[in-house]
Amino acid sequence: MHIGILTGGGDCPGLNAVIRAVTLALINECGARVTGIERGFLGLLTRSVRPLGLREVQGILAQGGTILGTHNRCDPFHYFGADGADCSAQALAFARELGLDGLVVIGGDGTMSIAHRFEPLGLPVVGVPKTIDNDLAHTDRTFGFDSAVAVVAEALDRLETTARSHGRVMIAETMGRYAGWIALEGGMAGGADMILLPELPFSVEAVARLCAEREAGDGCTLICIAEGARAAGRELTVRATLADSPDPIRLGGVGQWLQQQLQPLLSSEVRTTLLGHVQRGGSPTPYDRVLATRFGYHAAQLVRRGEWGRMVTLHGEDCASVPLSEVAGKSRNVPLDHPLLAVARGLGVSLGEAHR
Amino acid sequence: MHIGILTGGGDCPGLNAVIRAVTLALINECGARVTGIERGFLGLLTRSVRPLGLREVQGILAQGGTILGTHNRCDPFHYFGADGADCSAQALAFARELGLDGLVVIGGDGTMSIAHRFEPLGLPVVGVPKTIDNDLAHTDRTFGFDSAVAVVAEALDRLETTARSHGRVMIAETMGRYAGWIALEGGMAGGADMILLPELPFSVEAVARLCAEREAGDGCTLICIAEGARAAGRELTVRATLADSPDPIRLGGVGQWLQQQLQPLLSSEVRTTLLGHVQRGGSPTPYDRVLATRFGYHAAQLVRRGEWGRMVTLHGEDCASVPLSEVAGKSRNVPLDHPLLAVARGLGVSLGEAHR
Amino acid sequence: MHIGILTGGGDCPGLNAVIRAVTLALINECGARVTGIERGFLGLLTRSVRPLGLREVQGILAQGGTILGTHNRCDPFHYFGADGADCSAQALAFARELGLDGLVVIGGDGTMSIAHRFEPLGLPVVGVPKTIDNDLAHTDRTFGFDSAVAVVAEALDRLETTARSHGRVMIAETMGRYAGWIALEGGMAGGADMILLPELPFSVEAVARLCAEREAGDGCTLICIAEGARAAGRELTVRATLADSPDPIRLGGVGQWLQQQLQPLLSSEVRTTLLGHVQRGGSPTPYDRVLATRFGYHAAQLVRRGEWGRMVTLHGEDCASVPLSEVAGKSRNVPLDHPLLAVARGLGVSLGEAHR
Amino acid sequence: MHIGILTGGGDCPGLNAVIRAVTLALINECGARVTGIERGFLGLLTRSVRPLGLREVQGILAQGGTILGTHNRCDPFHYFGADGADCSAQALAFARELGLDGLVVIGGDGTMSIAHRFEPLGLPVVGVPKTIDNDLAHTDRTFGFDSAVAVVAEALDRLETTARSHGRVMIAETMGRYAGWIALEGGMAGGADMILLPELPFSVEAVARLCAEREAGDGCTLICIAEGARAAGRELTVRATLADSPDPIRLGGVGQWLQQQLQPLLSSEVRTTLLGHVQRGGSPTPYDRVLATRFGYHAAQLVRRGEWGRMVTLHGEDCASVPLSEVAGKSRNVPLDHPLLAVARGLGVSLGEAHR
């Protein structure tokens, strides 16, 4: 048996742990030959591959990133060659030339969709879900999320000392364009006073009122805001035009926008930190290393049992799988009745709602 | 409503997060008065209590230990006063004097048993489970466990560089007298080559053989062993007598014992690290902060709804509860068919078994 | 003897370690009474003080921030009361009312200047230098700097995995408006490929050329840039006007500016992270805890020996002091012949210079 | 020019940073060819070498251990071949066969002595000092020390929460057989209440008295003890004989010994943690990465300038060097008048002295 592995989409702590687990399990349990495909599906077009053996995956468990490289946007079905045809046939031909019996694809929603299209063309696939946003419909948790939450919590720990020493309002903007999981769990773990999510439009007035109340009580305010959070009925994009260009531009993120809204209403200083890519790089937490290892092992079991066309999932403490056909385009936002929202409110953490 | 809180048993990261969540939720949602009882049940005898308000629990979320103090062995039913009677009546009288309507008790198996005996005497109780060992029968996870696993994984990361640089066998002994969860998850997260658990007696010969094989291949070996692990059919206690005392004494832990067994059989140097109490102290991981917060909030809900006599649990992603009467004396070992054992074997991690 | 302590200026890891050391040493060695003044010199106007004893400073060694609070801009010589006179007399009167024999002032350049003006008015002062920027003229190192460098290095570690996995250019903007010490040491510790400092104007063309070369060699580029770095002969401020306001605004920092310059010249994606306030909050590194403790102890010695009007310094491994009169307004940039610049160049780390 | 690099002696965080800096600087500045010799001087006997280029040293800056491997005891002048002659000639012959113009040797006292003996035989050497103990006579600091101190401080942070929650005496035993630097700086950084050093024999009675006083005041005690610390006039080694062997054995370390002495005298529980090898493994702190990089670069400069027979040193903020002939056998203990001892005493940290 000869199996290819590739990683697609954005960086995520735990990718190497999956690669290691898939490789070790396939070699140890199936005697398989394993080949790494570089930079996602792009490697099938550029013919960039390398063998993966025990030695190649040694010591990578705790390493961030992916030893195979990744690519955000390479979809062979949307790349077109000189003859006007898309490049999927070329990718497929190269997979056949390698003699691949199947592919283990580690990636997010987009990567899974591409993988799913190769199936009917004769390249069987097993998927491993990857998203630091934890917003996949069919699985309780995804690896990388715990690591991102840990980065946010550590940043809030640091910002809190400054906020308290100065009596300031500190805003930390986290990842999460559509789903607020990182901001919610990171904010709760970091002791935020206010958590603003994409799922729950906030009221600038309510936010300002709370900051002012805390200010009056000699306190500081720590706000954890997801990049996708929005004020109800307000447009975020401050239209700006550069002196030397007529095109309007985007001005920082929602954190900076909120700072601009709040500052005139408060006497405390307001400061914003944009956490950015540090949330998706670096060594995975031990929790994520174990989860990624379990996902990788489970993917190898699906391969071993010939259960192609499925993606690994987690339910409670157990790994399971779902058909790839059910995966595409389904994301999981924070439901408005999620228990952790009740916990937040019960502890006096504001969600920026107008009427509370 | 006036509620007391106490923490009993050994230290565990996340205790303060529970105290904070219980206190905030009881104050915010029930307008309750909250009193902290110091040093576990001992505080009911020594009359050591203090009020807990918003200010008292501010900033303790990320702190290790317990601001209330704890005590390993104080059981009022087994302390006897001058009059020959046990001290439970005295404890109860003090609780009445305080006007407590109930008690939130955070502790392990022993603490829950004591709490349960106060119930029929008219002091209603809600329990929050605490054990870094993760060996409670009725809950998937307990707070503190993730933090202990993280300490083990970080130690293995450090030991691995030395093991590899010197071509050594490094043994790390973790907590876990009866259950091997910490060694298993910590070992998997830290990339151990061998994991030895209380649940699965190991063969010294098998361990030595694997070390020798790796030695021959220019490799090093990282062994993660739970303090309760034992070699099949072998007695651990090397009987030693001191020059100035005829009593036999105990010689270090099982890690050091294993080192003594292995060293004569190998040419590599063997070294042992006993991780000890660093596994149960210090700031909780973000995961544990969220879990402990959820446990504390849920305990406050049980109080609010008058569901006394129950202990909080976690099933999958949801908090629930069980009657205290079902809790006592039930622990949860690593079952021999646990998926993570299969993962370990599949990845070539040895469990020290004789015939594999 | 009755001594006051205050902390002024921005937050900095290690402030609490200084407060603790000063307090413990004054109490243990001089039997002094110690009073904390809250929020810098502001506390002398608002009459906000609190006693500091052994109990108050227990457990604060490793805590970030300052338990006394701080204030960025309160200068009693520039605050004017209802009578038109500045508030220095009011501050002085309150210090006399408290019966203070002297003040230990922990702060930066601005705080030292204010402190120095109180001296001739009869309020003797000892200073402890504080700046995470490490840019003080009279001392080799200041506490907080090592902690800031550690935050930068950890962020670069994380960004590097993403940069390498995607083949990207990652820009990390650090603190350092005038002096590049944080970017230089943080960049060297984090393995940056390029370090851009305020002291050494860079060439956008040189930067782009190097990125392109690395891109061609399948590599990624990690750029560590101080907020005060500037391109030679180029104006940073992209003038922008908001749709609803005619005033030109500032657009992000130099990191984002550089990204805008580089992106059109490269095929790799360029991404920027603005580290911000996480660099000055949080628990100090062990190195900073020891240094801050030594500074605090040395300040107490100056008080004990009556050596007023001096600021603590570090030379090599030894603490010393200089007159406050020599301190004001003298900062220490990275000299262009600093050995670490030679190390950087020798290791192939680019400093963005045009002709290398 | 063709230069060999080797690492000898025990593991130490920062070795890879030195290897990287030496390699990059020799290649970039001298166009040299660089060869890594594996497992210390042993590699010269086993003919185990490998080329070091830009690619080989990429990404190793932050890695613990040494990519070249090391060996504790291989001294070619003390290995004897079949012909009865020592193996130094064999090592030398292989170095000539490789065409080495010189050797950069990274190691401790023992490694430097061996290196020094090769010099008159025609193999010129430059040395880079390595000891986590920081006890070298000619240099202010050595890399790896800051990392060891950080491990100790973090462990004390963790142990402190448990000590305080239980009202316990916690003993942490650190490395430092002859010199107490790690215990001293680690203890100060971790807020130890008592620090016991090899340089200053302690009094068990004084230690017990202080613990009892703190116990009486409801406090806990955190003791940081170097492995080489000894009680004045007391023999450490409890002679024990095993049931099945007549030979006396050693019983744990001085930490466990102290626990046995203290426990009968106190009502608090006493617990010991033996930090062990985690102190010398793992990723170096940012401080150590910069220091190791500077040492490595400076070694390359000595090679470039032909200043053979010297070892790199640090004085204050500057790198310098001393002749290897002056290095051998000179170690640097904590002098009894060291400023940090005065700081400790001034802050009320006990050094276990009888008459204080």
From TrEMBL, chains A, B, C, D:
Keywords: ATP-binding, Cytoplasm, Glycolysis, Kinase, Magnesium, Metal-binding, Nucleotide-binding, Transferase. Substrate binds at T131, I132, D133, R168, M175, G176, R177, E227, R271, H277, V278, Q279, R280. It is found in: Cytoplasm. Its cofactor is Mg(2+). Mg(2+) binds at D109. It comes from the Bacteria. It comes from Ideonella alba. Homodimer or homotetramer. The active site is at D133 (proton acceptor). PANTHER family: ATP-DEPENDENT 6-PHOSPHOFRUCTOKINASE 3, PHOSPHOFRUCTOKINASE. ATP binds at G10, R73, C74, G108, D109, G110, T111. This is ATP-dependent 6-phosphofructokinase. Pfam families: PFK. PROSITE patterns: PHOSPHOFRUCTOKINASE. The gene is pfkA. It is an enzyme of class 2 (transferase). It catalyses: beta-D-fructose 6-phosphate + ATP = beta-D-fructose 1,6-bisphosphate + ADP + H(+). Its EC number is 2.7.1.11.
